[in-house]
Amino acid sequence: MIEHQVVHYLRYNLAYNTVGASAGVQIGTIPGGAQIVDCVVNVQTGFNAGTTNPVTVGTTATGEEIATAANIAAGTTGGKRMTTGLAVQPAADQPVYVSYIPTGTAATAGALTVCVAYVPNQ
To answer: Nearest 5°: phi and psi at 39?
Structure first.
């Protein structure tokens, strides 16, 4: 039994040119039984692909189980708190991914930081 419960974090910096982002980049693993308590995305530089700039955070490679593209709004700078992932409590160890699948003219800018906070099961 864990005597003290502490919040753990997965943190990842994503840029418009991160290798493998269109297929999903694994940023870490949440242990089985853990509860996601927060997800914050801070867009430092807006992504500027010609048509769309969908960035997602999920438990599948290009999924939106933790943070949706609409909520992240990667074309607009600023800190954004997500609520989608608060229902995620995996029964077994669960990888977490971030993806960026732009459309239209290739992006030439874009940078953000994803932080997923969770509390392990006792």
So the answer is: -150, 125
